[in-house]
Amino acid sequence: MEESKHPCYNADAHHKYARMHLPVAPQCNISCNYCNRKFDCVNESRPGVTSEVLTPELASQKFSWVKENIENLSVVGIAGPGDALANWDVTKKSIELIQAKGEDIIFCLSTNGLMLPHYAAELVEMGIKHITVTVNCLDPNIGARLYKVVNYEDKSYTGVAGAELMIQNQLKGIAYLVEHGVLVKINIVMVKGINDHHIPEVVKKMKELGVFITNIMPLIPAPGSAFEKFPQTSMKEINEMRDLCQLEMQQMRHCKQCRADAVGLLGNDRSNEFRMTKPEPEKSVLPAKQIGKEYRIAVTSKHGKLVDQHFGHATEFLIYQINDESFTLVERRKVEQYCSGVSECDSDLQEGRKSAAIQAIEDCDAVLTMRIGYHGQQRLLEHGIVSVEYCYTVEEGLAYAVEQLTMKKAI
Ligand code: CLF
Ligand code: SF4
């Protein structure tokens, strides 16, 4: 059974088997109210630094590079940074180039589902057996509050008409895929006050359609999106909803909302080690002397070279002093890791450690980290600390953070 080696479809496999995403799909054909297109597709990822975008040829080269170095790589997925099917030509070509290598690998793809009626048959013919569709609602009145614009066959639809079209195409596409033996996973973004009460109905319908598993995910409001001021759905609320829906069908509980260029085990992103392109120099390598400001920045890093650690996983902060001339590592501050998994999420223990971590860097202007949750960002902001998410070297991340701080001061 292929799904036994798929880390997302099988919770038991996610500590053992790795996946890689090919970030070949930058465009999207809809506009979700929780999305800011500067970031990866929020239907699969959490808002953060946008992934690199690759051509099919580069994606194929990257696959070989990763395959050689990660022996338990079992899945190649296409999950943005926009929508896989809104970029069908490059998505298809990328898969074909890798299929031609004849490796033992599972292909996987994630989509908003709008174009499924057009491409489902081809996907089946290509032998794709794992497809994720994000279905947030069945009711167009709810959809009208989630989708700003739906672009379909050279026309733009808004409001109920756009949502109706989305839902109709999603349901048609899912039914076709299931009938043709594809294991369909459904992502549902839970937005409090909009679709939360409706999720059990969505899950029930998905069960009727024969989907394999549903994955209820928290809304993490992307800065700059229409929902930017919406509260992030807490993991407690998500888990309660999953418990309720588990009575209906199997629920995914180990999703990491990973990047469109994620590489490695779900819990250990190694995308930093496998970059085909460097971040734009003008964005990331800004000599400090041009900035003319002094800052203190706390960095989370596993070995001090890369910004490759989540804020909640940090056991120490590297404290950098930035002045007109240079970045200087002035101190290392030990803290207790406050996030070690969902079981401790929202617990008093976690809260105490989180407060201690924030206190430890209270004198800093910013924290430079690979990932940080919405609540963590808000808590830091209360102390005047800006969160900067980044995914490359510490040095370039510091330059990027300084640029962000300078921009904020200028606003
Ligand atoms: Fe990627 Fe998605 Fe395939 Fe997995 S991710 S396209 S099904 S190979 Fe997995 Fe990442 Fe959660 Fe997605 S943990 S965001 S569910
Ligand atoms: Fe953004 Fe929605 Fe498109 Fe994903 S599907 S990229 S969340 S607009």
Automatic annotation (TrEMBL):
<keyword id="KW-0479">Metal-binding</keyword>
<dbReference type="InterPro" id="IPR013785">
    <property type="entry name" value="Aldolase_TIM"/>
</dbReference>
<keyword id="KW-0535">Nitrogen fixation</keyword>
<protein>
    <recommendedName>
        <fullName>FeMo cofactor biosynthesis protein NifB</fullName>
    </recommendedName>
</protein>
<dbReference type="GO" id="GO:0032324">
    <property type="term" value="P:molybdopterin cofactor biosynthetic process"/>
</dbReference>
<dbReference type="GO" id="GO:0046872">
    <property type="term" value="F:metal ion binding"/>
</dbReference>
<keyword id="KW-0004">4Fe-4S</keyword>
<dbReference type="InterPro" id="IPR003731">
    <property type="entry name" value="Di-Nase_FeMo-co_biosynth"/>
</dbReference>
<dbReference type="InterPro" id="IPR000385">
    <property type="entry name" value="MoaA_NifB_PqqE_Fe-S-bd_CS"/>
</dbReference>
<keyword id="KW-0408">Iron</keyword>
<dbReference type="InterPro" id="IPR005980">
    <property type="entry name" value="Nase_CF_NifB"/>
</dbReference>
<dbReference type="InterPro" id="IPR006638">
    <property type="entry name" value="Elp3/MiaA/NifB-like_rSAM"/>
</dbReference>
<dbReference type="Pfam" id="PF04055">
    <property type="entry name" value="Radical_SAM"/>
</dbReference>
<keyword id="KW-0456">Lyase</keyword>
<keyword id="KW-0949">S-adenosyl-L-methionine</keyword>
<dbReference type="GO" id="GO:0016829">
    <property type="term" value="F:lyase activity"/>
</dbReference>
<dbReference type="InterPro" id="IPR034165">
    <property type="entry name" value="NifB_C"/>
</dbReference>
<comment type="function">
    <text>Involved in the biosynthesis of the iron-molybdenum cofactor (FeMo-co or M-cluster) found in the dinitrogenase enzyme of the nitrogenase complex in nitrogen-fixing microorganisms. NifB catalyzes the crucial step of radical SAM-dependent carbide insertion that occurs concomitant with the insertion of a 9th sulfur and the rearrangement/coupling of two [4Fe-4S] clusters into a [8Fe-9S-C] cluster, the precursor to the M-cluster.</text>
</comment>
<dbReference type="InterPro" id="IPR058240">
    <property type="entry name" value="rSAM_sf"/>
</dbReference>
<feature type="domain" description="Radical SAM core">
    <location>
        <begin position="14"/>
        <end position="256"/>
    </location>
</feature>
<dbReference type="GO" id="GO:0051539">
    <property type="term" value="F:4 iron, 4 sulfur cluster binding"/>
</dbReference>
<comment type="similarity">
    <text>Belongs to the radical SAM superfamily. NifB family.</text>
</comment>
<comment type="pathway">
    <text>Cofactor biosynthesis; Fe-Mo cofactor biosynthesis.</text>
</comment>
<dbReference type="InterPro" id="IPR007197">
    <property type="entry name" value="rSAM"/>
</dbReference>
<dbReference type="Pfam" id="PF02579">
    <property type="entry name" value="Nitro_FeMo-Co"/>
</dbReference>
<dbReference type="InterPro" id="IPR036105">
    <property type="entry name" value="DiNase_FeMo-co_biosyn_sf"/>
</dbReference>
<keyword id="KW-0411">Iron-sulfur</keyword>
